[in-house]
Specification:
With 154 residues, the chain is an alpha+beta fold. Helices cover 42% and strands 22% of the residues.
């Protein structure tokens, strides 16, 4: 999973995004398999939205492949009172945004794509670091000698 420091960076990005786009009512970053990484979704169950996002993502990926449209980039759903937009965020995460109906969809896409790219960089970098093997522990013979106390001068 993603280390806590990067989760806090992702949450900060979600909060900055909500500040830049006033008609956003929620923002959620999740793994592609539906686990919440970070969210700013007042009044919405983040775990449920993340799970539904993963299900919709699976269908969107298959649809793009079946029609020869390439890899997944984004998904937009319009309901009676607003939009749900999902953007690719690196290789293993997605960004889902909840908006009011009055939002400028062009601005939503502009900001959502940018934030998705930044979140993707954070998550992918953290996962790459976590996948790197830890350096082997040094045995007592390999550890550098600890310096003794400094001589006292008079």
């Amino acid at each position: 999973m993603v280390p806590e420091a990067e989760v806090q960076d992702v949450l900060a990005e979600l909060q900055r995004l909500r500040a830049r786009v006033p008609l956003l009512s929620g923002a959620l970053a999740a793994s592609t398999d539906g686990l919440v990484l970070a969210h700013d979704t007042p009044g919405v169950e983040a775990e449920g939205v993340a799970a539904l996002t993963a299900a919709a993502l699976g269908v969107a990926i298959r649809m793009a492949q079946a029609t020869g449209r390439g890899g997944f980039r984004e998904l937009l759903v319009r309901g009676e009172t607003g939009y749900i937009a999902t953007y690719a965020a690196g290789s293993s995460a997605v960004l889902t945004l909840l908006t009011e109906d009055r939002i400028n969809v062009g601005r939503l896409h502009l900001e959502g794509r940018r934030a998705g790219a930044r979140i993707g960089e954070l998550v992918d970098t953290a996962l790459e670091r976590a996948a790197q093997p830890a350096p082997p522990a040094r045995t007592p013979e390999q550890r550098p000698a600890q310096p003794g106390p400094l001589p006292h001068r008079t």
